[in-house]
Each structure stands twice: as C-alpha cells, then as structure tokens.
Design a protein that fits this description.
Layout lengths: L2 E3 L4 E3 L1 H6 L9 H16 L5 H17 L2 E3 L6 E3 L1
Antiparallel strand pairs: 1-2, 3-4
Length: about 80
C-alpha cells in the first residue's frame, strides 16, 4: 500500500502506513508522515532505525530463550527457567 502524507509531503513506506492505520482503514497522516521523516533522518545519519532495533531485540530474546532464559515481556527482567 503506497501512501503520501499530505501534512509532511513525503511518500510513507508500507510498514509505517500499517502501523498508523486504524481498524476502519483510516491512516493518521500526521503520525505516519512524521514517523517516515524521522526514519529517513535516522538512516541518513547512519543510525539504526526503530525497525532494525526491534529486530535486534527480537533476535536477542530468541537467543536468550534458546539458552533456557525466560524473558518477561512487561519489563526488562530475565529469570532462569
């Protein structure tokens, strides 16, 4: 799904559009556009995007779980299984 943010004047990538689309299919133009602009700024600066950080976090969680740790979702606590 391609989406152009009228407020920010940018084409918003699909993943961001999905994140800011309500159940009735309405896209929050302001938040989607803002998120796209911030993601582009992050990429230009060579920093990791929120999506990259999320994937790294998920990989770390899978690694801990494979080693027998139980990761608690509500916080940062980890306990041995």
């Amino acid at each position: 799904m391609s989406y152009f943010s009228q407020m920010w004047g940018v084409e918003v990538r699909e993943k961001i559009v999905r994140e800011f689309t309500s159940p009735d299919g309405t896209v929050d133009d302001n938040l989607a556009g803002l998120h796209e602009v911030r993601a582009r700024m992050t990429e230009q600066e060579g920093r990791k995007t929120p999506a990259q950080l999320t994937e790294e976090t998920a990989e770390a969680q899978r690694s801990l779980e494979s080693e027998g740790w139980r990761v608690i979702q509500r916080g940062k606590s980890r306990t041995a299984a």
